[in-house]
User: What shape does this take?
Amino acid sequence: MVGEVDILILDTKFHILRKLNDKTLKNIFEIINNFSFDLISSGIMKHLAAYLLLELAGKTPNDKSIKSLLESVGIEADDNKIKKLLNELNNKNSEE
Assistant: This one.
């Protein structure tokens, strides 16, 4: 179908195949573009990726789920970065 993108994410525990429409992709890119330089330069991008992956999987991202996802693939989660991320997003999803 034109206008859809297949995203395949493979890692040690998660196998997600999801079709995203253009609106959803646009919303994800807007979230990334709206981040302050401070957040991007602080190494929070892995935490943002975990947040978006959880949403794509139909989960509600929160501090525990982000930390669990990161640690499941061998990434040390930083509680302060997770709090900063959640505050910046105000617990919004990619559709908002």
About this structure: Strands lie at 4-10, 15-21.
